[in-house]
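Hi F.,

I've been meaning to write this up properly since the lab meeting, where we talked about keeping a consistent format for the predictions we share between groups. The idea is simple: the sequence comes first, exactly as it goes in, then the structure tokens exactly as they come out, then a line or two of notes. No screenshots and no reformatting. I'm using this chain as the first example so we have something concrete to point to.
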Amino acid sequence: MTTSWLTRALEESRARGFLGPGSIEPQIQHANGFVAAWHSHRSDPPTSILDLGSGGGLPGLVLLETWVRPTTFLDSMEKRTNFLLEVLEWDDVPSGGSVWRGRAEELARETRGDSRFGLVTARSFGPPAVTAECAVRFLQIGGLLIVSEPPAGDDRWSDTGLDQLGLASRGSFRDSAGYKIIEKIRATPLRFPRATGTPGKSPLF
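Output, unedited:
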């Protein structure tokens, strides 16, 4: 059952153009798929979550409501981060939410973000190589990156490319949509992530 604050937040996000014009229920179901994908590998909730390229707040707002764990919403757009800051101030929203504005390549190298999170999620962040490189430094060793995937999306990922980053594929999960699950198995090499824009201009795979 969707709580009133979450429904209100997603409807407002849609009204501001941060989510698509359709019903919010399928989008909530899609966000819940990240929860199911996590629990296909881990029994306990993650200790901390980073929603990479959070945009209109999905899946991060749903994860905050479901797990009530420290959840960080990262986005480079001022309008979107201002909206998320508004929502997190509402009286009935679970505590523990925070918002970071900026480029992932830059924020990942700050002390507050380096190796901090047990789970990083990506809904529509970018191509696989870009998502992996921008996410990796945020993850703790043993943490998971879960990425929303198009149909038959598993072929998009390179085991060799992931290995360069200290990541390893842990397969795919299918719920209402597809999700790629990747584990950080060793420390991030110092050269990653590369300078702002470089992961997209010169992808690892």
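Notes:
The longest helix spans residues 24-39.
The two ends are 40 Å apart (CA to CA).

If this format works for you, I'll send the rest the same way.

G.
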